[in-house]
Specification:
Elements: E1 14-15, E2 25-28, H1 30-33, E3 37-44, E4 64-70, E5 81-87, E6 90-94, E7 98-102, E8 108-115, E9 119-126
Antiparallel strand pairs: 1-2, 2-3, 3-9, 4-7, 4-9, 5-6, 5-8
């Protein structure tokens, strides 16, 4: 093991609500995690009101896994929300727990349209290896 056990625990990644979100988020980056990934975790207890133009279609230079599940830790399938997912020119409304796998370069956008019960959205961005 090349690193200390203390350096493997990250309790300082919680952020206050931003972008008109009502709940805190967790954001771990390559820099503060010390690993080749970025992790973003959001909870929603109500439908967020976003600033116009805040979330626009975008892409990443790395693969992304985006997960939408219920915020009920006893039953993550208890999903009661509507999430608009745009991939390229296609638009889908997600109303059930879903995992999206977005290859690098995929143009996409995700908008939380309606939250009836708490939900969670988390993403993992796979960063390129430093020595690859």
């Amino acid at each position: 093991m090349g690193q200390s056990i203390d350096s493997m625990f990250h309790a300082d990644l919680i952020h206050e609500p931003d972008h008109n979100f009502t709940c805190k988020s967790l954001i771990g980056t390559k820099e503060n995690l010390g690993m080749d990934c970025t992790v973003v975790y959001y909870t929603f207890t109500e439908t967020p009101v976003f600033d116009e133009g805040l979330f626009v279609a975008h892409s990443h230079e790395v693969d992304e896994v985006l997960t939408l599940v219920a915020g009920n830790p006893g039953d993550i399938s208890d999903f009661d929300a509507e999430v608009e997912v745009c991939i390229g020119e296609e638009k889908r409304i997600v109303t059930e727990p879903t995992v999206l796998t977005l290859p690098a370069g995929t143009v996409h956008n995700v908008l939380i349209k309606k939250v009836n019960k708490p939900m969670v959205m988390w993403t993992v961005l796979m960063e390129p290896k430093e020595n690859a």
